[in-house]
Prior knowledge:
globular, Rossmann fold, 10 helices, alpha/beta, 12 strands
Amino acid sequence: MKRIGPALLAAPLAFVLALLPATAAHADTIRARQWGLEALHTQEAWRTTKGKGITVAVLDTGVDGTHPDLAGNVLQGKDMVGFGAERGDKSWAQHGTAMAGIIAGHGHGVGNADGVLGVAPEAKVLPVRVILEDGDPSRKRARSTRGNALAEGIRWAADHGADVINLSLGDDSKSAHPEPSEDAAVQYALKKGAVVVASAGNGGEEGDHISYPAAYPGVIAVTAVDRYGTRASFSTRRWYATVSAPGVDIVIANPDRDYYEGWGTSAAAAFVSGAVALIRAAHPGLDPAQIKQLLEDTARNPPADGRDDSRGFGLVDPAAAIREGAEVPPDDLRAAAYGKKYFGPGPSDSGSGGSSTDWIGPLAGGLGAVLLAAAVVLWRGRGRGPGLGAARRPGD
């Protein structure tokens, strides 16, 4: 199998696509390649729940809710950027759709046996667009005018019923530093009962620079491992690492209806967000701090000293967390769409909040920390969605 080269780790957020000639694998090969599901003992966890009743907000580049593997699982979301590529454009919702598939894909076809299956296939996805794809011509404009989109998006998600907030993004450039509005937004979400999960960063071969939002207090920061449980060379090593999850050779769905293999701590964070959705469905009364502690206490294959900066407390194990969670007294703290304020109001319904450019957060240039690089087409879908091809630009 062809894999993407290490040199691409320095590239910004996006997919790097290398389509193989017409030797597409059969659809059932997609499931056979989803080694991450077995690694997380999902079959055992699914005996209790598949995530029904849980909403996972995916703050990303948008999500294709018409994708066969996601149809019916994607709620009406919010665009905090307000411009950029649209459905049918190549640079639209690639990264976000991939993350949503890992979290809550349900497959398609007879018995849903084809396509991508997510960790929590009965959970709902709440898409919140806070960043544009690297190939989007409007990305430069977004970087200079919508720097507060992430903070706004976190608050909006918390105010609209998100039980889990997935942040498969971040800034791990040399100039990365905490942004007060984002830190406050994370604390706002946590106090409303939403568990916040973020990718630890892809800077393991580039100096292990701190990545935000992963480093904010209360966030579950996820590092990446391969199928053998070994830290991926690109995965950032820092004090904030909570747990690890699959992040190498991960099958991902794409709006173009093809399937690819990719890598990155983005994918690892999505796996953990799906795991948290299962835990929340099984134990809805547990608060974010209790769930974070559960993940740490039940992680498999912990480092020799119990924790290290490479893998946190070990490989996330939702099945074990569900079992142990039954012994934890619930706090009955749930996310809800109400107006109680902890750190000021959330964004308005129009999404017209702040446009700070002092620090542009995840819209900054050094987005290696959120890179999910897709290198191989695995299976080319026969039935492309309506309008997805006709509207694509020449040469795409």
